[in-house]
Structures are given as structure tokens and as C-alpha cells.
Automatic annotation (TrEMBL):
<keyword id="KW-0067">ATP-binding</keyword>
<keyword id="KW-0131">Cell cycle</keyword>
<protein>
    <submittedName>
        <fullName>Cell division protein ZapE</fullName>
    </submittedName>
</protein>
<keyword id="KW-0547">Nucleotide-binding</keyword>
<keyword id="KW-0132">Cell division</keyword>
<dbReference type="InterPro" id="IPR005654">
    <property type="entry name" value="ATPase_AFG1-like"/>
</dbReference>
<dbReference type="InterPro" id="IPR027417">
    <property type="entry name" value="P-loop_NTPase"/>
</dbReference>
<dbReference type="Pfam" id="PF03969">
    <property type="entry name" value="AFG1_ATPase"/>
</dbReference>
<dbReference type="GO" id="GO:0051301">
    <property type="term" value="P:cell division"/>
</dbReference>
Length: 351
């Protein structure tokens, strides 16, 4: 991997990362925003009792792991809380703390354990192959899936089969839905969709509904910020590099073309070690495959908290044609929210 040097930006297109199955698995941990998430630090809104109820139920779900952590003695013989089902699904709108609770559960669980988005798990299977991916995660005590995607029947069927094999071997699974921040109420609760799409596993999941308002009260009408010219982006990137910031500088077309040559499981290494990403000449995309690759790239930049500076079309306007009315609308809406955060200098925690 090309290393950043002071006084000169690097180019993302010069990065051709390799990644092993073990490295992919090592990245399946909560993002930095939730490194210290706990049940104790979750603050239920008293106006929505379902938040406190979900917190208490997840504490019960984690009861067996907590019991195993207690020191020996007479009272350690007490039976742990009974877990009725091996799976739990957190169903709620944006900003009610689903990802916080998911990460808190992950932190309590014994290893081996894994935490990732739906896209990261499908990328794992795509990179390694189905059976090697199963063998890699077999034996996990807990698998957490944030933003379970319901818009691609093929991926949903793949993950249903994948989770079915792992749950049959004793793995517990916790998941949230992919309700987007900008949907303005559409698909606010997805439990029925989730259970229908994973019908083969639905009897293994308990649904915990979490009502509430977005605690950030974010302005979903905002837009990504773009600089006036390509030259301004280049000058800004060079100035940052001169101050020993690790910054990349590429044209938008170069990045889009390069993403097509790198497996999405490796995007995490494209952004690794960067302080800023600079892109010149952003324009509308009309190819859906290119758009979906950009979504996956933006997810990795967002998880790594790497801000983006751009010129040309505002980054949140790149999804052209019928994309915003098609089957991947929710993915694009989530990406738009993250693009706004990445270009505005405001990187809030996940849901």
C-alpha cells in the first residue's frame, strides 16, 4: 500500500490493497463511534417506554455471558437468564440508538464475535467464497448485523442461508434494519419486511420495537458542501499535506473507475490511514453498478471518520436517472446522509 508522504497528497487510484480472510474478520468490529458503547451509557427517552424495554430485554439476552463472567462461588451456580430465541431484531426509526445497543451487546458477549453491516458480510462471502466464509465465522458466539438490507432478493437469500448454518451451530445473531435517515418516515418500522424476507429463519428471531425521535434532530434538507473549482480542491489538499495531514487527491472519474477494479471488501484499506479524501470534478452517475460501489466506499469513509472535500456537483446529487425511485432507494438515501456529514465537517455517530 502506498504510504502518505508529507508535502504531497497521495492518490487512491495508486492503492491496490490485498486483504486476507483473517484481516476482513478482524475489521468486523463496531466502528470507532461505538468503541465504548455500553448498556449503561444508553440513555432511554422517557417519552418512549419501548426504549427502556429494549434495553432491559437486551440485558437479559446478554445474561448468559454476564453470568459466565462472575467469579466462582455458591451464587455462581445460579442458572443464567433463559434466552428463548437465538436471534434478536431491533426494529425502529433512525436515531433511536439501535446501533448503540447492538454495539453494547457485542461488547458484553464472549468471543469469537463479529460486528458489521450487511454489506460487509456479503462482501466477505464475495471475497472468500461461501464455504470459506462459513468456516471463518463458525464457532462465533455472536454475530451482529447492522442495517440488514432487504432490497436485494439475492443477497437476502444468501444471508438467510449463511445465518441459518451459523445459528444451527450455536451462534446467536442480533440485527437492525436499514431504515435510512432521509426517508422522512417511509419504512420507519421494517419488522414485517424483515421477518418475511428471512422467512426460513423468522421463528428464530425475537423483535424488539424501539420507538422514538432522532436524538440528533438532524436537518435532512441539508446538502453536501462542494468547493468552487478543481484548483481550489487541489490547493486545499496540498495545504493539508504540507501540514503532514494524510490526504488523497483524485478526480471523481478516476475513483469511480478504480472502485470497479477493487473488491468492496478491500475498500476499508483504500481509506485506511487517511485524514482527508479530496475529489475533483464530481458529476452525476447514471450507471447503477458504479453508484452502488460508491455507496460502499462512502460507508467505509464514514466508518473511518474521514472527511471529504470535493468540487463539481455536490456529492449528494450524484445519483441520477431513476436511481432515487428504484429498488436501491434506501441505500442511496443513507449514502446521501453520510455524504452530507462527510463534506460538512460534522461526523455524527451512527444510529
Amino acid at each position: 500500500m502506498t504510504s502518505a508522504s508529507s508535502h504531497a497528497p497521495i492518490r487512491l487510484v495508486d492503492r491496490n490493497p490485498a486483504i486476507s480472510g483473517a484481516e476482513i474478520a478482524s475489521e468486523l468490529v463496531p466502528p470507532p463511534q461505538f468503541e465504548h458503547a455500553s448498556f449503561e451509557s444508553y440513555r432511554p427517552d422517557p417519552d418512549f417506554p419501548s426504549q427502556q424495554a429494549a434495553l432491559e430485554r437486551l440485558n437479559q439476552f446478554a445474561g448468559a455471558w454476564r453470568a459466565a463472567q462472575r467469579p466462582g462461588g455458591f451464587f455462581s451456580r445460579k442458572r443464567p437468564a433463559r434466552i428463548e430465541l437465538p436471534g434478536v431484531y431491533l426494529d425502529g426509526g433512525f436515531g433511536v440508538g439501535k446501533t448503540h445497543l447492538l454495539a453494547a451487546l457485542w461488547h458484553v458477549a464472549h468471543g469469537p464475535k463479529y460486528f458489521g453491516t450487511f454489506i460487509e458480510y456479503t462482501a466477505l462471502v464475495g471475497a472468500l467464497g461461501y464455504q470459506p466464509a462459513i468456516e471463518l465465522l463458525r464457532g462465533a458466539k455472536l454475530i451482529c448485523i447492522d442495517e440488514f438490507e432487504l432490497d436485494d432478493p439475492g443477497d437476502t437469500m444468501l444471508m438467510t442461508r449463511f445465518l441459518g448454518e451459523l445459528m444451527a451451530s450455536g451462534t446467536r445473531v442480533a440485527a437492525t434494519s436499514n431504515t435510512p435517515p432521509n426517508a422522512l418516515g417511509e419504512g420507519r418500522f421494517a419488522a414485517a419486511d424483515f421477518l418475511r424476507e428471512i422467512h426460513a429463519l423468522s421463528s428464530n428471531f425475537e423483535t424488539l420495537r424501539i420507538d422514538g425521535l432522532d436524538y440528533r434532530r438532524r436537518d435532512t434538507e441539508g446538502h453536501a458542501i462542494a468547493l468552487a473549482t478543481d484548483d481550489e480542491v487541489a490547493r486545499t489538499a496540498q495545504a493539508l499535506a504540507a501540514r503532514d495531514h494524510r490526504v488523497s487527491l483524485d478526480t471523481f472519474d478516476e475513483l469511480i473507475a478504480h472502485l470497479a477494479t477493487v473488491h468492496p471488501s478491500k475498500y476499508v484499506k483504500l481509506v485506511q490511514g487517511l485524514d482527508t479524501i479530496a475529489l475533483q470534478g464530481v458529476h452525476e452517475l447514471t450507471d447503477q453498478n458504479a453508484a452502488l460501489r460508491l455507496v460502499a466506499f462512502i460507508d467505509r469513509a464514514y466508518d473511518a471518520e474521514v472527511p471529504v472535500i470535493t468540487s463539481g456537483l455536490a456529492l449528494d446529487r450524484v445519483f441520477g436517472g431513476d436511481m432515487m425511485s428504484g429498488g436501491y432507494r434506501k441505500k442511496y438515501l443513507r449514502a446521501i446522509s453520510r455524504m452530507i456529514a462527510l463534506t460538512s465537517g460534522e461526523l455524527p455517530p451512527h444510529d
